[in-house]
User: Fold this.
Amino acid sequence: MAKPTPKQSKKRGARTGFTTGACSAAAARAAAIGLMTGRVPEQVETLLPNGERITFNVIEGYCRDNQAHAVVVKDAGDDPDVTDKAHLTADLRVVPDHCEQILFVGGEGVGHVTQPGLGLEIDGPAINPVPQQNIRQNITEVAASILESSGIEVTLSVPGGAEMAQRTLNPRLGIIGGISILGTSGIVHPWSTAAFRACVEQGIEVAARQGQQSIVLTTGGRTEKFVMREHSELPDACFVQMGDFLKPAFDTLVAQQIPHVIIGGMVGKLTKMAQGETITHANRNPVNMSLVAEIAASVGADNNLCEAITQAKTARFALEQLSEIGLQQPFLEALGRSVITTLKARYPGKFTLQVLICDFEGNKLAEVSDAE
Assistant:
């Protein structure tokens, strides 16, 4: 039987892995091939959201009665991820009354969304938009002829996912009964390892040795692409993905005497920076919603909304609510100023600081600088 996950040759501590979204897409693609041919392959080349194509091993697969089943085992690389070795499972069936549609169902171990603020439909499965789109792309590539006359229902499941979810923030976020299907690139970087921290510090040191006066810190690939568009005048060496390692990145910036710092981020991570977190990983401390409510109040949100924000689970909920009453822009600018205040208090007189804020699609929302 084929081994469960793709081999990688990177040294220990730096080996990348694959997201739950990428593994689900691989299983869905394999099952779609099964619908087309009557046989689920033992290996499947899969398109990742970042455009790469990776071959995954399929450990289990079968077809019957216009349905197909496939399982891919997740390899998280050297990231200490609770979903490492999870069995990402896709069951596909042809639905004749839904021509050209790909429908998603959450099976065993996939979380159920119960609260707003996540960008997902309430009462729907916790399958994030990028994985959904990636699964659609993979199914369409191999089963377009089925979609010409019928739809395909995709049920994703993760045996043991409910137990895994108890070791995540999902219950606090109003996602019950399982894990989320996540991932914006398809690749898991070992954000939490000493090796990745060393890479962050080394990236800043290399830029300093090149004589660069500005460093752009981002929390991931999507925010980096966003800030690269905003600061296209800067060379590539200036851009460093710090992941969740805020303090090591800033300590290195100060040690290297970099005078200008730019942060690119989304509302959740930026709120964690504003509240003083030095590690912004999702499984560390949650977002301080009282702080979010305070910032909302400072730009004119009424008491009822601020109380709702305090009781909410995500900063994204606050952003959605404030957008409806025209306070999104002042809120984001106030959040950016709060990030600047927190970091400048920790490192007084060491650098100028600019904060660029984007949405979950990488579109610019706000920009704040201490030069203001």
Observations:
- The chain has a mean pLDDT of 90.
- The longest strand covers residues 87-95.
- The CA atoms of residues 132 and 326 lie 30 Å apart.
